[in-house]
Amino acid sequence: MEPCNLDAHQGWRFGIKIGNGPTYPPPTDGHSRIRSQDADAAGRCLTAHGHAEPVTMEPCAGPDSEIYDRQAWTSSAPSGNWFGLWNRGAFTTVQCLDVRDRGRSDVVQTVTCGPANQGNQRWKLY
Questions:
Q1: 3-state helix, strand, coil in the chain (%, to 5)
Q2: Is 34 within 8 Å of 70 (Cβ atoms)?
Q3: What is the three-class DSSP state of 41?
Q4: Helices (H), the chain
Q5: Confidence band, pLDDT 50/70/90 cuts, at residue 9
Q6: I need a labelling partner for 67 at 20 to 30 A (CA). Which of 9, 17, 33, 46 fits?
């Protein structure tokens, strides 16, 4: 993990437009894609791969793709400025975006959601 700064490598867009391609209709359950603002990762979306598997950047997928659900994220209600992010992928339990080893790792993964105040599963917009 790197210290936070305001450059494009750490900038994200919540939405459904895929690069210069088509705009897909939003999922009916309120989920969104999370896409990098970095030009080197253009057209790539945050993608979950299952419990305790690292999250990766993969080409943003349309609704007919097998990874479409693994790129569908939603947020919890904010607590102050902090919120949780979970993935609706085809997993047996809801998976939350998590920093491995209770925040002491450089690996971002998805795991079964913990308590609402679990710090390594809370995120903040700058």
A1: 10, 35, 55
A2: no
A3: helix
A4: none
A5: low
A6: 9
